Amino acid sequence: xxxxxxxVSETELEDKEPINFKSIRRDDPNLExxxxxxxxxxxxxxxxxxxxxxxxxxxxxxxxxxENTVTRDPSDEVIVHGTKVVTYGEGSATxxxxxxxxxxxxxxxxxxxxxxxxxxxxxxxxxxxxxDRGPFTGAIIDLSRDAFSQIANLGTGRIPVRLEQAP
Length: 167
Description:
Elements: E1 8-19, E2 23-32, E3 36-40, E4 45-56, E5 59-72, E6 77-84, E7 87-96, E8 103-105, E9 114-119, E10 125-132, E11 141-144, H1 145-151, E12 159-165
Parallel strand pairs: 2-6, 7-11, 8-10
Antiparallel strand pairs: 1-4, 3-6, 4-5, 7-12, 8-11, 9-10, 9-12
């Protein structure tokens, strides 16, 4: 006759798991287009799980979930995206030799300002950097030759445009 002894033990194990937060996007018509800000930082939540673990002769033979509780709710992250388009005006554009590639001349915008110039007759746009003063011909902007050629035929000479802050 053979006698077999099995040592049985039961213990509880507590395990914590993070709960990811969600990112929520909100548009703000008062914030410039292309800019974002975080109105609320996200925070991970936490879930606690308790298990009953049964071992026979030191080997785990079963694991039963006995409790599953959210111990801290996550907080959503709120990211605000600007939708306000900053317009510098509408009028006509001409072209000139320019002082560099993809540059333009404007009477008042600071040097280095990036401007989105849209040809309102065909919808094509180009981004230029203000690098010179002018125009003095009644137009609102003088584009470098390469910039003008991207939105109109150079033979056109003068085109209707809208100027906006470049993203």
